[in-house]
Amino acid sequence: MNYPTIEDAIGRTPLVALQRIGSEMLRARGNVILGKLEGNNPAGSVKDRPALSMIKRAEERGDIKPGDTLIEATSGNTGIALAMAAAIKGYRMVLIMPEDLSIERAQTMKAFGAELVLTPKSGGMEYARDLADKMEKEGKGRVLDQFANADNPRIHYETTGPELWEQTGGRITHFVSAMGTTGTITGVSRFLREKNPAVRIIGAQPSEGSRIPGIRKWPQEYLPKIYDPSGVDELVLVGQSDAEEMCRRLAREEGIFAGISAAGACWVAQQIAAQVENATIAFIVCDRGDRYLSTGVFPA
């Protein structure tokens, strides 16, 4: 008998309706807000999908083989997912990460056997990405490059988008996603637009001065190459305090223990719901709240 492996546990995540947050407004306008619980993936985030996809497809092309060293700049979730995928597939994983990211993320990466290179907080993800490229040029390993790798949005086109369409019975009218590497919003948008060009695609970005893990507004020279702006109808700015408060509310009022970027997407979904009627609005709950405990977002 062939039993499933940990790879088979990636994807097919639940889609659940919010029951209390904004409930009066939702009922009055005939709207529903649905969260896709990507924290249910085995390494705890939506990044499990592209992490395994990028490694498997690189293997299929003959670009890498088990035993090779892989390098990636990460703000957290992709690094954790790649550390898991590398453990599954037998690779040495070197992750480059700004030093100010949560201790839970670093500990989880190490638990999967990854090696960490911490970069100065002042340099942000831009410095980490530059260092990854430098290490590859020096022959220290292969960069998968989530920001330019077509296998990132491809897996969301093949899995996340179809799941949302099936789980809503084709009734989805709005899709909201936090924007970091932009793989999720790019791949899901392409699929949903093929099914129904009228579906609205909304990206959540941080307002000026906000530092929300997992949501970025990239300088033009660092804009991910996989990003297709034609697939996004609207960009909505979310403030750090709004995202953090929604993070606490999701846990207290809905029983959804989510991360801060997921809460930012939920906040945007609520803003959209206040403007439309008879809509089915889905957002990505991209990870779980337990990897943000040390940030102080949740009361001790």
From TrEMBL:
<keyword id="KW-0663">Pyridoxal phosphate</keyword>
<feature type="binding site">
    <location>
        <position position="77"/>
    </location>
    <ligand>
        <name>pyridoxal 5'-phosphate</name>
    </ligand>
</feature>
<protein>
    <recommendedName>
        <fullName>Cysteine synthase</fullName>
        <ecNumber>2.5.1.47</ecNumber>
    </recommendedName>
</protein>
<dbReference type="InterPro" id="IPR001926">
    <property type="entry name" value="TrpB-like_PALP"/>
</dbReference>
<dbReference type="InterPro" id="IPR050214">
    <property type="entry name" value="Cys_Synth/Cystath_Beta-Synth"/>
</dbReference>
<dbReference type="GO" id="GO:0006535">
    <property type="term" value="P:cysteine biosynthetic process from serine"/>
</dbReference>
<keyword id="KW-0198">Cysteine biosynthesis</keyword>
<dbReference type="InterPro" id="IPR036052">
    <property type="entry name" value="TrpB-like_PALP_sf"/>
</dbReference>
<feature type="binding site">
    <location>
        <position position="261"/>
    </location>
    <ligand>
        <name>pyridoxal 5'-phosphate</name>
    </ligand>
</feature>
<dbReference type="GO" id="GO:0004124">
    <property type="term" value="F:cysteine synthase activity"/>
</dbReference>
<feature type="modified residue" description="N6-(pyridoxal phosphate)lysine">
    <location>
        <position position="47"/>
    </location>
</feature>
<feature type="binding site">
    <location>
        <begin position="180"/>
        <end position="184"/>
    </location>
    <ligand>
        <name>pyridoxal 5'-phosphate</name>
    </ligand>
</feature>
<keyword id="KW-0808">Transferase</keyword>
<dbReference type="InterPro" id="IPR005858">
    <property type="entry name" value="CysM"/>
</dbReference>
<comment type="pathway">
    <text>Amino-acid biosynthesis; L-cysteine biosynthesis; L-cysteine from L-serine: step 2/2.</text>
</comment>
<dbReference type="Pfam" id="PF00291">
    <property type="entry name" value="PALP"/>
</dbReference>
<dbReference type="InterPro" id="IPR001216">
    <property type="entry name" value="P-phosphate_BS"/>
</dbReference>
<comment type="similarity">
    <text>Belongs to the cysteine synthase/cystathionine beta-synthase family.</text>
</comment>
<dbReference type="InterPro" id="IPR005856">
    <property type="entry name" value="Cys_synth"/>
</dbReference>
<feature type="domain" description="Tryptophan synthase beta chain-like PALP">
    <location>
        <begin position="6"/>
        <end position="287"/>
    </location>
</feature>
<keyword id="KW-0028">Amino-acid biosynthesis</keyword>
